Structure formats: structure tokens, C-alpha cells
What we know:
- Strands 3-2-1-4-5-8-9-10 form an 8-stranded mixed beta sheet, sandwiched between helices. Strands 6-7 form a two-stranded antiparallel ribbon.
- Helix 2 links the parallel strand 2 (47-51) and strand 3 (75-76).
- It is globular and about 45 Å long.
- The protein is of the alpha/beta class.
- Helix content is 24%, strand content 20%.
- The protein has a single domain, classed as YjeF N-terminal domain (Rossmann fold, 3-Layer(aba) Sandwich), CATH 3.40.50.10260.
Amino acid sequence: TPVSSRQAFPLPSLPRKQPTVLVVCGPAQNGAIGLVCARHLRIFDYEPTIFYPKRSPDPLYRDFTTQCEKMDIPFLSYLPTEVQLINDAYNAVVDAVLGAEAEAGEGREPCAAILATLKHIRIPIISLDVPSGWDVEAGSSGGISPDVLVSLSAPKQCARRFLGRQHFVAGRFLPYDVQKKFELNPPEYPGTECVVALRAPR
Length: 202
């Protein structure tokens, strides 16, 4: 399914009185989903800023970047290592660094430096699909600790170890043959919602 067809963020979970969001994008597919997320946030009158230090040469990902630029979404040239600057400037961070492509390795730059910073911020972190630094099967091994997890398609095995406040799944777009092939049992999506809460806020 094309990344652009995914609504990768549960907008009702972020009050509009807190509109500033930092979207941190990695070089692979999860980073592209982060770009789509930033675009959706901007459409709904949030104020996203993107940090995308290692841009993919993939034409589709370049198109997503261009779309964000044309929507006047600012891009940071560097991520402050002084975490208080991030805490003061933004109300939340969207983690779209590694996701399920964890084999990209948190030990490689720029991912290692990004994760080192994200581990110390105090504002809420929303991770897309798999929290960065987590093993997709085993779960956390020194990765970040997000407050919100948005599983794409279906929760991954590591989601069993997620202890944050809210867990959403965005998988309404999955074709029935895919659901049957992988023996998925998707939740019922209310109304026209593209995401559904698996865990109520705590």
C-alpha cells in the first residue's frame, strides 16, 4: 500500500491547544511515513517542524519532501543536543526514525545521535509503527520510551512490551486478502476513522 494512503497519526490524541510538533524522520520507509504525518498535521492546523537529516534518493520520498516544503513546513538543519530547547519549543515529538526497519541500526549515524537525544526529552513522544531502537520482535533494548504508539497495518510483536499511555492501530486500508493471508483480526473502526484506540488514555 502506498505510504501516502496512510493516515499515520491519530489527530484527536493531540489537543489543538498544543499545536507545535517536531517530526523526526529517518532515511527509510518510516521516515517517509513521518513526512506524510507532518503533512496531515499541517492540513489540520497543527504546526509541525521536520528534522530529516538523511534524505532518501527515492523519487516517492523526494515528492513527499517537496509536498511538505510547498506547505511551508519548516525543516531543521540540525537537532539541538540541549534537550531543554526541544522541550521548550515543542509540545510533542513524532518518532519516525527507524520503525520496523530496525536492521538499519541505532548504532549508525545519524540515528544514534537522534536516539540519544530523544531518550532524554520530557515532552510526549509518539512513535510510528515500532519505537526507534526497539527490536521488532523482542521489544525494547535500550530504545526510546514513547507515550503513544501508532501501529501501522497491525501491531508488531514488540507492541506487547509497550507501556505508554495510548496505543492506536492504523490499518483500515488493508485489503481483505492480506488480512486473510496473515490471519489478521483487525479491530472495528468507528465511523470513518482511519485509526482505532487499542488502549484508552491513562
